[in-house]
UniProtKB/TrEMBL annotation:
Keyword Ion transport belongs to the record: no
Record function comment: Subunit of malonate decarboxylase, it is an acyl carrier protein to which acetyl and malonyl thioester residues are bound via a 2'-(5''-phosphoribosyl)-3'-dephospho-CoA prosthetic group and turn over during the catalytic mechanism.
Localization annotation: Cytoplasm
Encoding gene (name): mdcC
Protein family (similarity comment): Belongs to the MdcC family.
GO MF terms, alphabetically ordered: acyl carrier activity
Keyword tags: Cytoplasm, Phosphoprotein
Identification of the protein by name: Malonate decarboxylase acyl carrier protein
Recorded coiled-coil stretches: none
GO cellular component, one term: cytoplasm
Residues recorded with modification O-(phosphoribosyl dephospho-coenzyme A)serine: 25
Length: 99
């Protein structure tokens, strides 16, 4: 198991929490909670050792395309593909932005 941490710029704090996905074969779970204004933090616990550069590249692409709300994101990964990671985080973003 490997534990990774990342920080990115963000907008105003999210208004709510969200839990998306589930840990299982080839999937992941993501918990999104309101964070400190201007900061988005991501903590990843993954079963794939040595995957830090892949996670960093994925997050750089995902978080540079739009301004995300300030969040604290905890990800529990069991070998999910980059497409699944993106899908889960976009599902979580939809939930935290839902009125």
């Amino acid at each position: 198991m490997e534990s990774l941490s990342f920080t990115f710029p963000a907008g105003a704090a999210a208004k709510r929490r969200a839990l998306v996905g589930c840990v299982g074969s080839g999937d992941l779970e993501a918990l999104l909670e309101p964070g400190e204004t201007g900061v988005l933090t991501v903590k990843v616990l993954t079963s794939v050792n040595g995957s830090g550069p892949r996670w960093e590249q994925l997050f750089q692409r995902l978080f540079s395309g739009q301004t995300w709300p300030a969040l604290s994101i905890d990800i529990h990964d069991f070998g999910a593909t980059p497409g699944v990671v993106r899908l889960r985080l976009e599902q979580g973003l939809e939930e935290v932005n839902h009125d």
